Amino acid sequence: MTEIPLSVPYVDVVVVGAGFTGLYALHKFRDEMKMSVRVFEAGGDVGGTWYWNRYPGCRCDVESIFYSYSFDEALQQEWSWSEKYASQPEILRYLNHVADRFDLRKGITFDTRVTALHWDDQESLWTVRTDDGNSLRCRYVISGVGTLSVAKKPEFGGIENFQGEVLFTGNWPHETVDFSGQRVAVIGTGASASQAIPLIAEEAAELLVFQRTPNFATPLANAPIDAEQMRKIKEDYPSLREAARKGFIGVPYDQWLPSALAVDPDERRRVYDDRYAAGGFRLFVDSFQDILYNYDANETLAEYLRERIYERVKDPDTAERLVPKGYAYGTKRPLLETDYFETFNRENVRLIDVSEESIDEITATGVRVGEHTYEVDVIVLATGFDAMTGPILAMDLRGRNGIRLADKWADGPRTHLGLMVNQFPNLFMITGPQSPSVLQNMPMGIEDHVDFACDAINYLHSRDLNIIEPTEQAESMWLALVNAIADLTLMPQSKSWYVGANIPGKPRACFLYLGGAPTYRQTCAEAVAGGYTGFYLSKAQAFDSKAVVGEAV
Ligand code: N01
Fold it and tell me: Which CATH architecture has domain 153-215+333-384?
């Protein structure tokens, strides 16, 4: 291990990222725990996902009143949401408001990417390196790098040869993009594309949508929230939040029925019609419980959704190509859309099926598929992310004895509770792989995980300790549990980013804990109640931070 000169400054906690996680963690550690904290953020401002994803139509498909912080009652009372599902600009305004309200910016170093995190066995400290060439030492690291923040490298080449403009949904320009009069290609038909396509279609002269796999998509059913509704919500916040905590994905749905196969077709149809019209994730986690576990049950819903597509898309050939087949509903991220299917009824929109003949390359003038080049002026890449593990592994992360996280995770992630890793002490991965993560209302999962880290550190300090690290045995048991739950579901059968299948060469594993947020929370609470069962707690040799030469951060 390289020796770190004493001139490298020290803080108690380094937080990576200034999205929902980083802002809350900074407030919690600095203002409540009175610890010294430095946040590093690669972007030019706060917001994380909501800073980078600025494509037209970008919005959150979890209800605003749940997709927000619950930790501060005054914050809840002063902020009003204008829509049931907030748009990206509104969420970004909210996060800016939070940053100002809690005076967080001074704790954040912007435009600075963490490149390496190395554990120093002698000092029992992390050394954090950033892309401006600086280093910092700290006792604890909070990773708030996000789950969908590293773009997937497209399988096709030639992007650099394109003479027009190439745009990435996940790193969209800050200036408004004017598509009027343009011939536009959108590559991909996932959640991002399905939000952008209807709006780009309204402006562009011609829109070509390149689809490799059709997705199940259901209405979002967005609506404005008026002043009276918001007043009532604010009054009810305590009970709404409490109910949300009981929900499988952290939203208070409570009409889940046991089995799609236990009711007659009329009743099934009634339930599907009701949830389809209600919008959001109601079909996914508030219709019948067995659709995620039983293929026949799932097929009843899949067939219902196929019929809706045939109804909504006028051209039968296009409808046929938009209809998902060969995999179960919900095993790829269900899309929540507004006018997505109707967009394909427009004269200026064409669906290009690349399921059998794939995109070969981007040329100077367009997208080449086999012998044919589709000539366009702008290409929008909505091709997804190296999800869950990509953002953590993008840093050179080394634990005890220099072990690299990338090597440890060569066959897939190994964690305890999706939060911590054996041989990587004092590193808390907020909404990490093998936690409920993206299958939970993220701000709620983030608050839970940051609170876990704070409580653990308080517990350590109250016993004059300062190191927490999961045992290898706990990690193996967690892996077995995550896999066992996944195997009960239909999830592992599909080629989705939930199981790493969207990236060639990525290990196939279940990257999510699928037991639901309440069970997960209870498991974490039991570990805490047992005195952090599954974790080693220990004390590092004395480290005199006052002896460090250099600026206090
Ligand atoms: O990415 P994706 P995304 N040739 O991976 C296609 C969250 N999110 O950015 O399915 C042709 O889902 C790929 O095809 P296939 C949400 O969790 C949330 O859309 O691999 N096509 C697919 O159609 C979401 O799930 C919100 O065959 C290629 C698409 O690109 C996650 O972000 C909004 C291709 C990628 O879809 C990621 O969504 C938006 C190729 N070579 C996103 N390579 C909310 O509302 C890939 N594709 C909260």
Answer: 3-Layer(bba) Sandwich (3.50)
Residue 341 to residues 10, 191, 203, 383, Cα–Cα distance (Å): 54, 13, 17, 19
In tens, the pLDDT along 99-142 reads 999 999 999 999 999 999 999 999 999 999 999 999 999 999 99
The label of the residue with tokens 């604890």 reads 140
Please, are residues 371 and 176 in contact by the beta-carbon 8 Å criterion?
A: no
Identify the residue whose C-alpha is closest to ligand 1 atom 38. Answer: 191
Q: Any residues with CB less than 8 A from the CB of 160 and at least 6 apart, and which?
A: none
Determine the straight-line distance between the first and last CA of the chain, rounded to whole angstroms: 24
Domain with CATH 3.50.50.60 in the chain: 10-46+104-150+387-548, 153-215+333-384
Cα separation, 352 vs 349, in Å, equals: 10
Cα–Cα nearest to 545, from 168, 13, 33: 13
**Helix (H) / strand (E) containing 169:** none
Cβ distance 467 to 460 under 8 Å? yes
Give the residue whose CA is nearest to atom 15 of ligand 1.
213
Average pLDDT over residues 58-77: 98
Per-residue b/e over 370-404, b at no fewer than 16 CB within 10 Å? eeebbebbbbbbbbbbbbbbbbbbbbebbbeeebe
Rounded CA separation 492/370 (Å): 32
CA of 283 to the centre of ligand 1 (A): 20
Domain 10-46+104-150+387-548 has CATH 2.20.28.90: no
Which one-letter DSSP state was computed for residue 273? H
Q: Whose CA is nearest to atom 11 of ligand 1?
A: 212
Q: 330-377, pLDDT tens digit by residue? A: 999 999 999 999 999 999 999 999 999 999 999 999 999 999 999 999
Given phi > 0 = left and psi -120 to 50 = alpha, else beta, which region is 281? alpha
Confidence (pTM): 0.96
Ligand 1 pocket test, pick from 192, 440, 495 with the greatest ligand atom count within 8 Å of Cβ, gives: 192
Alpha helices in 279-424 (DSSP H): 282-285, 295-312, 316-322, 340-343, 390-393, 405-408
Q: Which amino acid is at 333?
A: R
Indicate which residue's Cα is closest to atom 24 of ligand 1: 191
Which atom, in ligand 1's list, is nearest to the CA of 189? 23
Cα of 374 from ligand 1 centre, angstroms: 21
Closest CA to 60 of 252, 204, 195, 193: 195
